[in-house]
Amino acid sequence: MDDGIRSHLPLAGEQIIVTGAGSGIGAATAVLAAAKGAEVAAADIHRESAEAVCGQIAGGGGRAIAVEVDVSDEAQVEAMISRTVQELGGLTGIVNNAGVIVTRPLTETSVEEWDRCLDINARGVFLGCKHAVRHFLDRGIAGSIVNTGSISALTGQHGQAAYAASKGAIVQLTRQIAVEHAAHGIRCNSVGPGSVHSAVLSSFLASQPDPGAAEASLAAQHPVGRIGDAEEVAAANCFLLSREASFITGTNLQVDGGYTAV
Ligand code: NAD
Questions:
Q1: Which residue range or ranges hold the Ketoreductase domain (predicted)?
Q2: Which residues pair with 192 in a beta bridge?
Q3: How much is the CA Rg of the chain, to the nearest whole Å?
Q4: Cα–Cα distance for residue pair 166/148, rounded to 1 Å
Q5: How confident is the model at residue 2, as a pLDDT?
């Protein structure tokens, strides 16, 4: 794409990290952010899947680097931010999207399952926010953070004790950061997907006694009568990252086909 046209795109001049960018919502967000003009660090625990997404972005004329990271490891998160700043020339936004689902009734949830879910989902978001904000403060950048919540952050679900707790923590941490750093021009919001076609959803459905019936039942629980697409969540992520959302901070935007409106 011509540089003159690119400079008018909503995310032109931005350098954005997307975690969990190797698949699903993260991959769709990385690709859309690049199409909207951002330079993207596609970060994932699976380097090869992040590299494949970078290849897709390069094929569309965008610029992206693949970063291997375990978001639950503080040293790796710091290294992800340093490498992005070094290779893309800065960092203006982050989408803390990497996550795993544990579907287990409360009484059968082991401490190991609880810790793994909270470590990746909640601690991973905390670390991404902490080190992105440190970078924004050090450089005086009015950065934007988008954290991935869920309908499970706001509603009770069968068999999701650890997952729902991790997502509830994300929504409340988001409000906290928004208030603490509004005076620095830093915005922090969360996006709460409903059921979206992806690997997380496939693993949840596979854990159900009748996956086909579970999928139909899930679709029916969304007033729009269907499961969403990753691109629909990516659109919300990119809007909140952009200057079009300059007066929006501390909000939780549900992208759930009306699920939480019922
Ligand atoms: P996905 O499994 O397709 O993608 C998750 C990505 O995160 C994968 O590429 C995986 O490799 C990566 N990842 C996992 N652990 C990691 C770690 N420790 N460090 C770095 N990367 C790691 O799932 P998705 O549906 O795209 O989910 C993305 C986010 O959306 C998650 O936070 C999930 O909880 C949330 N969400 C999904 C749905 C849904 O229905 N798909 C609904 C609500 C919320």
A1: 14-208
A2: 254
A3: 18
A4: 11
A5: 66
The pTM (predicted TM-score) of the whole model is 0.97
| Residue 196 alpha carbon, nearest atom of ligand 1 | 40
CA distances, 227 to each of 57, 151, 192, 201 (Å): 26, 13, 14, 10
Q: 42: which strand partners? A: 18, 66
- One-character DSSP codes across 5-74: HHTTSTTTT-EEEEETTTSHHHHHHHHHHHHTT-EEEEEESSHHHHHHHHHHHHHTT--EEEEE--TT-H
How confident is the model over 67-88, as pLDDT tens digits? 999 999 999 999 999 999 999 9
What is the C-alpha to C-alpha distance for residues 203 and 193, in angstroms, rounded to an integer?
16
Do 179 and 133 contact (CB within 8 A), yes or no?
no
Ligand 1 pocket residue status of 23, Cβ below 6 Å: yes
Pairing relation of β-strands 64-68 and 39-44? parallel
The torsion region of residue 66 among left (phi > 0), alpha (psi -120 to 50) and beta comes to beta
Where are the extended beta strands (E) located within the chain?
Answer: 15-19, 39-44, 64-68, 93-96, 144-148, 187-193, 252-255
Task: Kindly state if the Cβ of 153 falls inside 6 Å of ligand 1.
Answer: no
The reported pLDDT for the residue numbered 93 is: 98
Q: Give the pLDDT of residue 201.
A: 85
Q: What is the pLDDT of residues 198-241, one digit of tens each?
A: 887 887 788 889 999 999 999 999 999 999 999 999 999 999 99
Question: What are the two backbone dihedrals, phi and then psi, of residue 38, each rounded to the nearest 5 degrees?
Answer: -80, 155
Residue indicated by tokens 């401490």: 111
